[in-house]
Amino acid sequence: MERKVKVAAVSYSNTKPLLYGFRNHPVMDMMELTMDYPAKIARQLIDGEVDVALVPVAIIPKLQEAHIISDFCIGADGPVASVCLFSEVPLHDIKRIYLDYQSRTSVALLKVLVKEYWKLPVEFVETTGDYQDKIQGTDAGLVIGDRALAQRHKSPFIYDLAEAWIKFTNLPFVFAAWISNKQLSPEFIAAFNNANSIGFQNLPAVIAEIEHPVYDMHVYYTQNISYPLTPAKRQGMQRFLSYLQQ
C-alpha cells in the first residue's frame, strides 16, 4: 500500500474554511493531517517530516524543492485584520517592536515595511511566548491570528500589514500557501483541491462551529481573508520573496 501523504495545517480561524471539506472526503484515505502553528509546521516541511503544509510563504527560499499544490491560500487584497502591528502610540513614535514567534512571513513582511515603506528606526525583539502585555508606551507588538483579532479590542493604534503592503506595492499579499516539498500525484492534488473548496460553499456551517468569536467571522472570511490564489497574488508573492533575497 502506498504511503499516505503527511499534511500539516495551521490551527487558526483563518484555516477553518480550507479544512472544513476534509471531513469525510475521499482525500483523507490518501493523507494524514496534523495541526500546529505556522513557524512549527514550516520547520517540519523544511526538515521533511511532512510532505505538504499550509506554510508561511517566506520559507519557500529555504526549501530544496517547493510546489504550490492548491488554488487556495491565506491571502489578502485589502485589510486582513489578523496580522497587525499594535501600539499605544502613533507609528513614528514606536521605539521597539515585539515579534510574533508564530509566523515567519508576518515577521518578514513587517521588516520589509519598516525598512522600505515606513522607514522606522526601531529595535526588534524576538519572543518565545505570550508578550501582548508588553505592548505599552513606545513598545509595539506584531500579533497574528486569533490573538490579533482579540488584540483589536485593546490597542488604540492598529497598523494592518496587508493594507500597508498593498499601499506600498499595489499588489495583494499571500501569507501562506499549501506547499509540498516533493512531486505529488495529480490524483492527490485534484482531490486535495476539491476538499479545499467545500468550506466556501458552506460558510454558515464553518462559522457556526467557532465558539465565542471576538470578531465578525462572516466579514473576516468574505472581506478580510482572500482565499483564491490568483495571478495577482502570485505576482505579489514573487515581489515579497524578491525583498527577502536582497
Layout of strands and helices, then pairs:
Blueprint: E1 5-10, H1 16-20, E2 31-36, H2 38-46, E3 52-56, E4 67-76, E5 83-87, E6 96-98, H3 104-118, E7 123-125, E8 139-144, H4 145-151, E9 157-160, H5 161-169, E10 173-180, H6 186-198, H7 203-208, H8 217-224, E11 226-228, H9 231-244
Parallel strand pairs: 1-2, 1-3, 6-7, 6-8
Antiparallel strand pairs: 3-10, 4-10, 4-11, 5-8, 5-9
Helix pairs in contact: 3-5
Question: What features would you describe in this structure?
Answer:
By secondary structure, this protein is α/β, with parallel strands linked by helices. It is 35% helix and 24% strand. It has helices spanning 16-20, 38-46, 104-118, 145-151, 161-169, 186-198, 203-208, 217-224, 231-244, and strands at residues 5-10, 31-36, 52-56, 67-76, 83-87, 96-98, 123-125, 139-144, 157-160, 173-180, 226-228. Helix 3 links the parallel strand 6 (96-98) and strand 7 (123-125). Helix 3 crosses helix 5 (161-169). The model has no long low-confidence stretch (mean pLDDT 94).
Question: Top keywords for this entry?
Answer:
single chain; 246 residues; alpha/beta; 6-stranded mixed sheet; 5-stranded mixed sheet; 9 helices; 11 strands; 35% helix
